Amino acid sequence: MGANRIGAQPLGEKKKGADKGIDGVITFSDERPTRAKRAVVQVKSGHVHVKDIRELKDIASRNAMGIFITHEPPTREMRTEAASAGYYHSPLWERDYQKIQILTIEELLAGKNVDMPPVIPPFPKAQRISQKEGGQLPM
Question: How confident is the model at residue 91 (pLDDT cuts 50, 70, 90)?
Fold first, then answer.
């Protein structure tokens, strides 16, 4: 539920090695001409520990950002570890975003979202066709 709620797309294949444990990615635009960046998303439903944030920090170091979604509230140590990752600076939007963000399922259900640059849609939107143009064809 968590990764879909924030617009993350699945990786499409289970990766072994460095990206183990990543449940999805969010692609966003940064720099001109538009250059895609990635925020990796990890969802944990069981008991969470500061080591989970350390692992995400390591994976996020090869990406722009890391998003950790959990059922349980994060511990003080987890928040401290996430804050120690610093910020991702967006040159296009001239703004800093926390590099590792922790969100709970409860926060997501209450409407909280990831603080990040605008998302690139996975597919371009099709042009809307008016009813006259796209009417039903005769049989």
Answer: confident
